[in-house]
Amino acid sequence: MLNRQGRPSSAGEAGTTTHPTFTGNKALAQVEPLLFEIGRYDTTGVDLDEPEDLKPRLGGLERKEAIGLPGLSEPETMRHYVRLSQQNYGIDTGLFPLGSCTMKHNARLNERVARLPGFADAHPLQPVSTVQGALELMNELGRYLITLTNMTAVALSPKAGAHGELCGMMAIKAAIEAKGEGATRNVVLVPDSAHGTNPATAALIGFKVKPVPARDDGFVHVEDVKKLLGPDVAAIMLTNPNTCGLFEPQVAEIAKAIHDAGAYFYCDGANFNAIVGKARPGDLGVDAMHINLHKTFSTPHGGGGPGSGPVVLSARLAPFAPVPFVRAGKNGFELVEQESDAAEKPFGRMTAFHGQMGMYVRALSYMLSHGADGMKQASEDAVLNANYIRAGLSDLLSLPFGDKPCMHEVLFDDAWLKDTGVTTLDVAKAMIDEGYHPMTMYFPLVVHGAMLIEPTESESKSSLDLFIATLRDLAMAAKKGDTERFTGAPYHAPRRRLDETRAARNPVLKWTPPAPVAEAAE
Amino acid sequence: MRYLPLSDTDRGEMLARIGVNHVDELFADVPQNLLLTEPVDLPRRKGELEVERILSRMSAKNVSASSVPFFVGAGAYKHHVPATVDHLIQRSEFLTSYTPYQPEIAQGTLQYLFEFQTQVATLTGMDVANASMYDGSTGTGEAVLMAHRVTKRRKAVLSGGLHPHYADVVKTLSDMASDETIILAPDVTGTEDILAQIDDTTSCVVVQSPDVFGNVRDLKPIADKAHQHGALLIAVFTEVVSLGLLRSPGSMGADIVVGEGQSIGNALNFGGPYVGLFATQSKYIRQMPGRLCGETVDADGNRGFVLTLSTREQHIRRDKATSNICTNSGLCSLAFTIHMTLLGEAGLSRLARINHANAVKLADQLAAVKGVEVLNKTFFNEFTVKLTKPAAEVVERLAEKGVLAGVPASRLLPGAGLDNLLLVASTEVNTDDDRAAFCAALKEVL
């Protein structure tokens, strides 16, 4: 195979592609059509008996026409989705250093216990007397989260991190309105380095977003915050440890300044995994923080979800926590589902039912397994691993804030690629050829060509040594001018680089049947 | 600790390589008076056996749906999920992957999302569907916000047949965003005059069918009236199996269709995780929330899939984004797609007929019990009965007798004067014995 420059891409590449196959398959790498190209409208992989003499009571609203959904038999279904799975990279495949996303080991014990019938096969609206174990689990998870954060209360129901942010900011808005300041306090401070969800969340519920400018050292400075504070400021949304992989050294002073100004401190807890068992957000002056159970407590990411984003709240915000919540009563656990049944002032409801129970079980299983000692060790190992990578690469790659300790992730910029003709994106794609999932690219936005590497505590020293050696080899190749190894990459993945511009310019978002042959021939 | 590969020797060597003596030197930016030196006050680590024992004990305190005659619905439904589904979604490459931001090594996820989007769009009768929402309720909240963006109006009218949790989610979000929400009174019989509520200031009308009381609704007249006034119809469903038998919301004129997909492929899970389905017309795609997967080609010209139209999303647009969402319900949407692939059109429509037939049988049998009145003229697999006693009390008594009978309307709508109403669902899992046990127990209790 030749690349666009007309030269062989690499020695290994030439070897694999000079023998085209009849099928297009390459041994284990199978070409798999869409379900709609192989399925049949009269095929089903589920054996069901047709009901006898059904007299519909549908008010004449029955479907008259065919739906258009093909089916596959069970063996075909199995093969189709197994083949698709083989085109994916997961944590179980190899090192997945996606900064800010925390791709740590997903223990299968957690999958097993989440499928226990009392959890997986319980309905959210069964009588409370028949789900005491489920409520006990929610209560226990809440106790663990409150203990680890030293906060007052927890709202478990948010369905993901961004949903948790929304919950926390709604609690803040409710508290401000309860003080009669709803009309005047409508500004939320968000550092430039924040996740995009922060400003999006604040804007969603009517706050005006005011950026806190980035500084050269990667930190938010208390004097910058103070300059922006006033009677119009409702809250700051601060990520700590921040998205540059650094713990904010002035966090306690910032919290005090915020509180002195009558505002609230929302902490984005996306990086809580670096400090679990080492520091408690409640001690740092946090009023609300979401916890991504799918990151810190290892409920699987599942290709993008489902997540779970419980929010811990300070005493000032606890009364406004949304329904539902669990409380211990005389006859066991109670579930408060209606605002009118709560002693406090819930601001409303985030979702139907009680949140991501399946994720609660997995997260509690993780916490029970690790214990207080194991969770502390996990944080320390995550930070150690990131710093080990930093130490192994600091002479070849560029650190935007100098060579100083980081937390659980290390941030490089693209200064080291200057004049090489290679970009951060190219490096990421070349890492794919080396068998690694790339790091997070171009985030945070405050650093040029950001490469955010989070190895997590799940990696062994030998795994990190090979990763460091690989990145050193790539760095030297880039500096030597071997640009093709980068600009054409990936060469060995199930697909070459994909044309994202074309996808956005002319969106094709579903399969449509090809035109009938007769019509096409005309 | 079994999940942590580093040995103390490794740690020592790594600290030396980094050039520090103690790991706490790496935590130097944490205020030192707040740095914990001892583990927090929680139990120590536990082996797999012990954790399994603790959680199994909690699980055993719950009554699982499969262990009793089970008729609980109201937004979550007990269906049989083929073993193949649960096996496939636990494949490492699906389970332990991330959002497909590196499409060259995520075609597995992207292709199933493309299949998912096609299945959802086809089933709902719409042009396009997104890659899923958290669940039906949050999807409904997002649909209302989207309607406000499209119409540049800020008043939503919610049917009294909309699931009360869904209405609460919309109202919470709308109140916080200072948008107006009109929620009609609980509409047990599906006869409310929602047309009268639609005027030139209405952004959208939100109507559920089958509604929370089970009534099947004709959406066409509502769509027509909404369109006359420049408003959108948001059609909601909580039981996706119903679409195997009922006319699609798209064919009745819906502008946005949103619903809960849990019934296909997903367990009850005590309320979550579930999978929100969200579909609309092509002209509105740039106002849609959530992730979208689109087709493209790679550098060699081979077909492939990528996440697309991300300029709508928060990581690009920040405070101007269409939504703050940065998650879909990935693995639950995969479960949906695999189950739907197994069913196919033939299996889905038959499954829907079985559900309907079982509910019809149950309704007829319950109607024959003294003190029970079936209120619905139309229904799919769920209906409302009026009892001679408060339903909450009856449900507790039936639970003691080993029958999980349904959801008291008062649990969803306290103080609405609906204390004697019970929502009853029946799916393919119910047998003749289940129905007989329900009726017998009810006779004793009433």
Q: What is the CATH topology classification name of the largest domain in chain A?
A: Aspartate Aminotransferase, domain 2
Quaternary: heterodimer
Strand content of chain B: 5-15%
Question: How many domains make up the coordinates of chain A?
Answer: 2
Tell me the helix content of chain B.
25-40%
Total beta strand runs of chain A: 12
The stretches of 5 or more residues of chain A where confidence is low (pLDDT under 50) are 1-6, 8-16
* Largest sheet geometry of chain B: 7 strands, mixed
Number of domains of chain B: 3
At CATH's second level, what is the architecture of the largest domain in chain B?
3-Layer(aba) Sandwich
How many β-strand stretches of chain B?
13
Assign the structural class of chain B, choosing from mainly alpha, mainly beta, alpha/beta, alpha+beta, or little secondary structure.
alpha/beta
CATH structural class of the largest domain in chain A: Alpha Beta
Shape of chain A: globular
Largest interface: A-B, 206 and 208 residues
Can you characterise this structure?
With 522 residues, chain A is an alpha/beta fold. Chain A has two domains: 258 residues, Type I PLP-dependent aspartate aminotransferase-like (Major domain) (Aspartate Aminotransferase, domain 2, 3-Layer(aba) Sandwich); 126 residues, Aspartate Aminotransferase, domain 1, CATH 3.90.1150. Chain A contains 17 helices and twelve strands. In chain A, strands 1-7-6-5-4-2-3 form a seven-stranded mixed beta sheet, sandwiched between helices. Chain A has a three-stranded antiparallel beta sheet with strand order 10-12-11, with helices on one face. A two-stranded antiparallel sheet of chain A has the order 8-9. Chain A is globular, with a radius of gyration of 26 Å. Chain B is built from 13 helices and 13 strands. Chain B folds into three domains: 41 residues, no CATH class; 118 residues, Alpha-Beta Complex (Aspartate Aminotransferase, domain 1); 257 residues, Aspartate Aminotransferase, domain 2. In chain B, helix 3 packs antiparallel against helix 10 and helix 5 packs parallel to helix 10. In chain B, strand 2, helix 7 and strand 3 form a beta-alpha-beta unit. With 446 residues, chain B is an alpha/beta fold. Chain B starts with 7 loop residues before the first helix and ends with a helix. Chains A and B meet through helix 3, helix 4, helix 5, helix 6 and helix 7 of A and helix 1, helix 2, helix 3, helix 4 and helix 5 of B.
